[in-house]
Design brief:
This protein is an alpha+beta fold. The protein has helices spanning 29-36, 41-52, 65-90, 92-100, 105-110, 122-127, 131-140, 213-219, 232-240, 256-265, 277-290, 311-328, 333-342, 350-364, and strands at residues 9-12, 17-20, 26-27, 114-116, 143-145, 161-163, 168-174, 180-187, 195-197, 226-229, 246-248, 268-273, 299-304, 331-332.
Length: 368
């Protein structure tokens, strides 16, 4: 819970509680996971039950079939993660691409980076030899069902499918418990789309997940700030430079669920955007989402990078200290709001100042 050089943390197995004499933190195993790993109560219960090999009782005696199916999908995602990591070890081309991007092996291991080789059926051959296997791959979003031609009958033996990710560097997306729930794949050579994400599945909802949050919590005892960037490679490259508190939204705008998850971890959030028009547009969308969450004690800031740079390239060019100095000097939400609106009016006139108040009012009304 805090930096400590003396043995002040005590656990009583008999009484089933912990106590820290350094800071006074006290509670049960559930409370420990909620406070230390920043889990919700249901997540903490699920985590402890899984460690103990117990089934969590459901309200009204709910059937656990769905839970068993979900466990099977988590197991399949873990196998796919290992498959992609093994493929990276065997591909000099993929490893050379990561070296050219400035990544070292230790970083690739920490973030479980992998490689989906070319080919339409690598995963299908390995995990989809049965009908149930193909349906499981479909449920995880790892394969795509082939479109049937008009009038074509369903083929026996289950759906015809092909691999979703082909010739891409793979970034596994992990939940609060470290389980792989989805993937992002970056094309190595020219191709579209540059980044391809898992679709919505029973395990993966991109409006809730933050890439890199699990790794940040593993690396840092106490996260005092989160830096929200746009890409997987930005998160990984910043971490390699020693900036372990970066997370990325998964190809989507920041959502209220993202913010709720971040504010469970810390009260200081900095959004980092490119300085071009697209970056400014994305920043304003983020600001509009943030207004309802701008409560007392929380800090929301905006950082705009020099044009032509993203965090990946900028931290490589100027290093950790210079980049963190930019983060420290990020613009507070209130300042960015006023600055952006002021550009739309003429503040040298009475009418312009009245117009500024008029367009600011509905935005300010969203602030608690």
């Amino acid at each position: 819970f805090h930096g400590e050089k003396t043995p002040s943390f005590y656990v009583s197995q008999q009484k089933q509680f912990y106590h820290c004499f350094g800071c006074g933190a006290h509670g049960t195993a559930l409370g420990f996971l909620i406070e230390h790993d920043r889990l919700s109560f249901p997540e903490a219960v699920e985590d402890l039950a899984g460690r103990a090999g117990l089934e969590v009782p459901r309200e009204g005696g709910q059937d656990t079939t769905r839970d068993r199916l979900q466990d099977d999908l988590f197991a399949l995602m873990a196998h796919a993660d290992q498959h992609f990591r093994d493929c990276l070890k065997d591909s000099e081309r993929a490893k050379e691409y990561l070296r050219q991007r400035g990544l070292v092996g230790e970083t690739a291991v920490r973030y479980h980076l992998g490689y989906a080789p070319p080919g339409w059926d690598n995963l299908v051959k390995k995990f989809g030899s049965t009908e149930a296997g193909r349906y499981a791959l479909l449920s995880c979003g790892l394969v795509i069902e082939r479109e049937k031609k008009p009038g074509e009958a369903e083929k026996p033996g289950g759906p015809g499918v092909y691999d979703r990710f082909r010739d891409r560097i793979m970034f596994p997306i992990r939940d609060t418990r470290g389980r792989v729930v989805g993937f992002g794949g970056r094309v190595i050579d020219a191709g579209e789309p540059k980044y391809l994400n898992s679709p919505e599945t029973p395990l993966f909802h991109k409006g809730r997940e933050l890439y890199g949050l699990y790794e940040a919590r593993q690396q840092l005892r106490n996260i005092e700030r989160l830096l929200v960037v746009e890409g997987y490679m930005d998160v990984v490259r910043l971490a390699q430079a020693g900036i372990h508190y970066a997370v990325a939204t998964l190809g989507t705008s920041t959502t209220p669920e993202h913010l709720a998850r971040m504010f469970r971890v810390c009260n200081d959030v900095v959004f980092c955007f490119d300085g071009d028009r697209a970056g400014r547009t994305a920043a304003w969308r983020a600001l509009e989402t943030c207004l309802a969450h701008a409560k007392e004690g929380r800090q929301l800031k905006f950082l705009f990078l020099p044009e032509g740079h993203d965090p990946d390239t900028l931290v490589a060019e100027e290093g950790k200290a210079a980049f963190e100095a930019r983060v420290e000097g990020a613009m507070p939400l209130s300042e960015y709001l006023v600055q952006n609106l002021a550009q739309q009016v003429d503040l040298d006139t009475v009418d312009g100042r009245a117009r500024l108040a008029e367009i600011a009012k509905p935005l300010l009304q969203r602030v608690p």
